[in-house]
Amino acid sequence: MAAAKKLTDNHLTCVICTEVFTDPATLQCSHTLCKSCLLKYTKTQPKAIQARSIPCPSCRQLTKVTNPGSPVEEWVSQLKPSHVIQGLMDDFGPETEAVKTKEYTVCKNQQRQTPATSCHDVDAIENMTPQVKKQLTKQNQELNVRIGNIEHGLSVRRKHVDDFRNTVEEVKNQIRSTRAKVMEIIVKKEKQLLDDVDQSSTTQLQQIQADIKSQEIELQKYQQQYEFTANAVTSNCEMDMYAVYESVDEASPDNRDTNNTPGRVVFTHDMDKLSKAVHELQLGEVKLVHDVCDRKSTPTLHQVIDCKTEDDTRYSFLHDVSVLTVDGVHVVVVTDFGNKRLNTYYTHAMHSPKHIQFSNEPWQITQLANCRVAVSVPDSNEIVIVKVYPEPELLSTIRTSNTYYGQAYLSPSRLVVGGIRGTDILDMTGKVLKSIKTGLVSSPDFIHVTSNRNLIVSEGTVRSLVSVTSEGEDVFTYTPTADRALKYPRGITSTSTGDILLVDRNSHKVIQLTGSGQFVRDVLTAQDGIDTPRGICLDRDGLLYVTCGSCVKIFKFQRY
């Protein structure tokens, strides 16, 4: 009886009339009141009515109505009680005779509270309280799961917003850099024109100066002759006069063209043509692209890199792929298992392909910092560190005591590796720091570390994908059946939103899962040209790279 009164007072009483609810209604703030009480209270709140909202007398929060053009009475009548309140009202609602006599009973055969007339099929409320508590506890557990899912979704979305803003700023910097390069070209053209002006004008000026000097000499000569002749004419000596006369008569006439006009420097240009050229100048193209994170996007083959060469002595098949960014350009790094080498390719034809030869077959590639990668070479018990800038350069070799195939970057000083003896964490000298249990996948062929530092491992002969924490605690095991059953799982990567991409070699697919291991879709299939894929990776622009035989196939994603 005391429990029943406590339940009624705390959960089934209206704060306005202080009585047990009559036709309860729950607001968006989760407070519940009698509809009649709520209607009377709302009519006393003109500001709330003007805002087309129902005010809560407990917390003052406004509840927006679905049909603001209807009368206030309809606003309130459309409200429904919460499932919990409705369930409690069904069981312990209106007062019964038992309530009046301080005895609360519930009629089980009608599944609602009614006045009890006999003791058949009747339970005391004290017996029902554990059931109510269990129901509320279960609901809280479900709410906690929903809260966790929403919080995780918000975290992913916030990170996506940060990444998107960083990408936008990077694109702006690329545009500014492109503009600077174009301006540099224009400045060079300006300098070339100015140099042409200087060269043309210097030659012409030198010629004019030479002509001026020659004419000055002639002028001086004629001036002297004029003075000599004038003196002879005014002289009384006939001999001198005849001598001057004969010398003048013998002098050659000046036949030089004194009307020769010097050339001039002229700058000619078509302003309309120049304006049109500037207007049509293409610095680049800005567009919003989608990637595999958008689950409604569709893949399209963007580019194919054929890694076969004329010098290949064995069949070239690529095992893994990774993409680095060197000086703003994507560099594709692949392990050629057949020819025992590491190849590098620029996605733009700036450099010819380069490679490093190994003594044994290389396996998985892991990106490190500063344009470096780690490459596992299991048959040699080695992990090789290579720098790609711009050509591949062998930096160092880590000798390991065990044979490791899969390997991934865990921290600047640690790698997580997997092989025939299990999964270990190594330091950068090859020392085993600790071992990790990875469930069904006991000898990982491929390992991937997610953004939250969980490990995802695959093994070709095990038809499962396993995720564990870096401490070896289970996260999920993905073992689909029937048509979705895995046939030979290989390479793994994850998106910026936490989705997982898995290569299934023998089913010729790339499969997309949620971060918790739930199936999303088949991203790529044999119909997309995928044939026995092995390695997979994403670049920062959202392009998806998949190794297929001796080729790397690059896919972009669009949304139609």
Low-confidence stretches: 95-114
Q: pLDDT average, as an integer? A: 84
The CATH homologous superfamily of the domain at 298-558:
TolB, C-terminal domain
Largest sheet: 4 strands, antiparallel
* CATH architecture field of the domain at 298-558: 6 Propeller
- Work out the helicity level: 25-40%
- Separate helix tally: 9
Can you tell me the CATH class of the domain at 298-558?
A: Mainly Beta
Task: Strand order, main sheet: write it out.
Answer: 7-30-29-28
Give the termini distance in whole angstroms: 64 Å
Radius of gyration equals 44 Å
Class computed from helices, strands and strand pairing: alpha+beta
Here the CATH topology of the domain at 298-558 equals Neuraminidase
Q: In percent, how much strand structure appears in the residues?
A: 25-35%
Shape: flat
Q: What's the total count of β strands? A: 30
Outline the structure in words.
The chain is α+β, with helices and mostly antiparallel strands. Among the domains are: 119 residues, Zinc/RING finger domain, C3HC4 (zinc finger) (Herpes Virus-1, 2-Layer Sandwich), CATH 3.30.40; 261 residues, TolB, C-terminal domain (Neuraminidase, 6 Propeller). It contains nine helices and 30 strands. It has a four-stranded antiparallel sheet, with no helix packed on it. A four-stranded antiparallel sheet has the order 8-9-10-11, with no helix packed on it. A four-stranded antiparallel sheet has the order 12-13-14-15, with no helix packed on it. Helix 7 crosses helix 8. The two termini are 64 Å apart.
